[in-house]
Write a structure and sequence with these properties.
Blueprint lengths: L16 H13 L14 H13 L3 E5 L2 H11 L7 E5 L5 H8 L3 E5 L9 H7 L5 E5 L8 H11 L2 E5 L7 E2 L2 E2 L6 E5 L12 E5 L2 H12 L13 H5 L14 H12 L1 H19 L6 E2 L6 E2 L4 E5 L5 H13 L5 E2 L24 H8 L1 E5 L6 H23 L3
Parallel strand pairs: 2-3, 2-4, 4-5, 5-8
Antiparallel strand pairs: 1-9, 6-7, 6-11, 8-9, 10-12, 12-14, 13-14
Helix pairs in contact: 1-9, 2-9, 3-4, 3-7, 10-13, 11-13
Bound molecules: pyridoxal-5'-phosphate.
Pyridoxal-5'-phosphate (PLP) binds next to helix 3 and helix 4.
């Protein structure tokens, strides 16, 4: 009898008891707005920022309503506005070009490599086309950040990191989000910390961060932050920043604080699951795993592999056969966007360039969630199912040429 997986690819773990207790405390006192504090009280949102700054080593941190708002806030804080161009990698998800468009700017897409990271040669070639790069560490894959920063520093490009998939990760010992001028994180349900929706922004740049705090909707209450620049920095910019009301509330902050404390432990559990699936898929004919460089301290919450050079019907056959056995795979090669998965050329509000290398990579790119509710046995079973179905299709039809 064929094995089948019966678990859910979208089921997260519950919020830890400590987070539930903290959330109940906020609900009981009713002061959910971050600036609504009792005398002597420090808001959960302010504490979260202080703790996230300490955790990442950043001077400043700001809690926001979503990762997308964190990115638009960072772009605005660095002065990106209507008509400006912003470099970004072409392997991405909707909120990234969306954030660029939200400030009236125009994405300039950079090719992706077979390792699923931004192509540094193409970045160097396009460096003259924008003064800001929004690099997305898509699906947790981090490029050689030292090399990226060297290119950008030479060209005078400010780097914003989209760390939606790299909370707790690092390149060469430097936390993700700490290489560029600003780092943006998401705490939306499918990310490494779960508050339903939420975002965090970090930086060492005092002026940019003061602008970001004002943009987020701090009114003249920025003095209640504990991980923001000193008041004199706000004095210089406080009448110039529109309020876009992207604040995080105390309820979500309360849920997140214990999750941040558990991040290292949870990250290790995610990576255990990743390594079991990776090990189970190693050596599958026709399937290419993504090599993870030693300098990349990743935190997996999903796994990707390539069916490189496969014809579309064969890829679809693998997806269909796997889902029939309970294994949900996503495909970045589909012409039409499905659920969360889309491609750079889906977005007709921005110019669609010719990117043959990215098109080739995305045509074979398969993606799978790895929620922590999967046991290691589940992961081994899932890998056996994928392996068997890829092998079956490969033998019957997929071998390229
Ligand atoms: C790569 C990437 N960047 C940014 C975001 C934005 O996060 P949010 O959903 O919190 O706006 C997401 C969300 O899925 C994402 O996948």
């Amino acid at each position: 009898m064929q094995e089948r997986f019966d678990g859910s690819f979208t089921q997260q773990e519950p919020i830890p008891d400590e987070g539930i207790a903290a959330a109940l405390a906020v609900l009981r006192h009713g002061r959910l707005h971050r600036y609504n504090v009792a005398p002597g009280e420090v808001a959960e949102a302010a504490l979260l920022e202080e703790e996230f700054a300490a955790m990442t080593g950043a001077r400043y941190a700001l809690a926001l309503g979503s990762g997308g708002i964190a990115m638009t806030t960072a772009l605005r804080a660095l002065g990106v506005g209507p008509g400006d161009t912003v470099l970004t990698n072409a392997f991405t998800l909707a909120p990234v070009p969306g954030a660029i468009a939200a400030v009236g700017a125009v994405p300039v897409y950079v090719e992706v490599t077979d390792a699923l990271v931004i192509d540094l040669d193409d970045l160097a070639a396009k460096a003259g086309q924008a003064r800001v790069l929004l690099v997305s560490h898509m699906r947790g894959h981090i490029c050689d950040m030292a090399a990226l920063m060297a290119i950008c520093n030479r060209a005078g490009i400010a780097v914003i990191e989209d760390c939606a998939h790299t909370m707790g990760a690092a390149w060469d010992g430097v936390p993700s989000g700490r290489w560029g001028r600003m780092g943006c994180f998401s705490t939306q349900t499918y990310k490494h910390a779960n508050s339903g929706e939420g975002g965090l922004l970090i930086s060492d740049d005092a002026t940019a961060m003061a602008r970001a705090v004002l943009l987020s909707g701090s009114y003249m209450l920025y003095g209640r932050h504990r991980a923001a620049p000193p008041p004199e920095v706000f004095e210089a910019v406080k009448y110039d920043m529109p309020n876009i009301s992207g604040r995080m509330d105390n309820l979500r902050a309360a849920i997140l604080r214990p999750q941040l404390r558990a991040l290292a432990v949870q990250g290790a559990r995610w990576n255990e699951r990743y390594r079991v699936v990776e090990g189970g898929l190693t050596g599958t004919p026709g399937l290419t795993l993504i090599a993870r460089p030693l300098a990349e301290q990743f935190v997996a919450s999903s796994i990707q592999f390539l069916l490189a050079g496969w014809a579309e019907p064969a890829v679809r056959a693998v997806l269909d056969r796997c889902v029939a056995r309970g294994v949900e795979l996503k495909w970045f090669g589909a012409a039409e966007p499905v659920a969360f998965t889309s491609r750079y050329d889906t977005w007709r509000y921005a110019p669609v360039p010719v990117l043959p290398q990215t098109d080739r990579v995305l045509a074979g790119l398969i993606d799978m969630r790895l929620p922590l509710t999967f046991s290691l046995d589940d992961c081994a079973l899932i890998a056996r199912i994928i392996r068997a179905e890829v092998a079956a299709v490969w033998q019957s039809s997929a071998a390229p040429g």
